[in-house]
Amino acid sequence: MTSFLTSNPTSYQKQHLGPAESWGRFLLRLSSNAMSAFLAAICLLGLSLANAVNFTTVYEWDQFEFTWPSGANSSIEEIKRNFNPKNVEFLYMAVFGERLFLSLDWKYGTPATLVWLPTSGTSTAPPKLDPFPSWNLHERYNCDTIQMAKGLETDTDGRLWVVDDGNAACPGKIWIFDLLNNDKSEHIHRFPDTVVSHASGSRALHDIVLDKTPDDYIAYIRDAASEHIVAYSRKLDKSWSVKTSRKKWKSFALSPSQEARQLYLSKSFSDDFYSVSVGQLKNEGKSAHVEFIGQWKKIPSRMLIDSSNVLYAAFFNANYLAKWNISEPFHEQRFYEAGELGTIEPFTFALDTNGNLWMTELNESTGVKRQKLLKAAIGAKSYLYSAARP
């Protein structure tokens, strides 16, 4: 560029100089503009670095394996024959103590759709997947066992909540496990057909968030096949649904405990972003009015809010995560970016009680699935904790 300008000043001057601008002054102006652009780039880089989070890799898999039970068992042997490690994909995650809980996408030969991993280990080899709570609770088409685990959440009292979408034979339900009492199944709530359709093609249960009140936990569950939010009271052992402005939802997240607690929702097949007051979702049989917030740059596949009011989002067909402080005007900021991943839904994440954000990352860009488990210290707990710092 410089050699062209100095060797061809006349032709370039006719196109770009002002009517009374000298060649020397033009070069000075050009240098000034270039410096401004350079400084702007440095500023943007600084903002990017300020928002970056330092993730470390905990485990990495190029192939998964299960911890198979010992002893002869014809049903387990059949499952092992049909098992395809390439079909294992993580959907949702929850953390409690030194265990990570993960739901798996169900495909033919998937041995179990709910597994757990240790958060740390002495071996450098990645751990095998252990069905939770045991192999006995993963019998296909037995409606008294887990059929299709989806959304997961742990509460502050040591329980694991599991959304089970069921299958053609079994309707949807919620499982509540007591992690402090040998993982005992504390309760199973089977949704009535009037709340969640018993026809498998008419329901699609996914995310779950928990609203902790002084004497209860109320779960809110996303049914992607309907225009409702499903609610469940542990105290009353009762579920109901609330209409939401003739819209279906793709992901959601709950704000920390406040008087005006909000559920944030991303619209299906859209980058539109909304919120609704939790108070409206407690009105059985009523409709809730959702408020438009703004638009993401892509459609969120996962969302999560921490105790410091920061919302984290992963997106379909995107290799990055974004965040937004819900106390401020809506503004999307990237805080993690990977290389090419070639995956529709590459991320899922959860927060622990020590201020760490745990995340899985799926990479299919080379034609071979590689899965990572990563961790980053962010200095905040989940939305269930009122304290901003651990």
From TrEMBL:
<dbReference type="InterPro" id="IPR011042">
    <property type="entry name" value="6-blade_b-propeller_TolB-like"/>
</dbReference>
<keyword id="KW-0964">Secreted</keyword>
<comment type="similarity">
    <text>Belongs to the major royal jelly protein family.</text>
</comment>
<protein>
    <recommendedName>
        <fullName>Bee-milk protein</fullName>
    </recommendedName>
</protein>
<dbReference type="GO" id="GO:0005576">
    <property type="term" value="C:extracellular region"/>
</dbReference>
<dbReference type="Pfam" id="PF03022">
    <property type="entry name" value="MRJP"/>
</dbReference>
<dbReference type="InterPro" id="IPR017996">
    <property type="entry name" value="MRJP/yellow-related"/>
</dbReference>
